[in-house]
Structure of Sarcosine oxidase, delta subunit:
Amino acid sequence: MLLIPCPHCGPREEREFRCGGESHVARPSFAEAPNDEAFAEYLYVRTNPRGVQAERWHHLYGCRRWFNLLRNTVTHEITAVYPMGAPRPEPAP
Ligand SMILES: [Zn+2]
């Protein structure tokens, strides 16, 4: 089980959280003509890396806030926690 460091509550067990998937997936603009291909890619295509991935997490059974973190998908090591809307930090070397 993961020990997830909530930026508001401190480290808590994974069962208190829900993963919201990959972070920084930009919604396509519909200011011009609607583009089905761009919207389908927004909905269904993810990078699914083997290594460090930025993810959104919701502390559902705690402070009920959302935040981002960097997690290694192989080792599950969490290397950074940062607020929603903040840019992705560079992973530690
Ligand atoms: Zn929390």
User: Anything to note?
Assistant: The mean pLDDT is 93. The first strand starts at residue 3 and ends at 6.
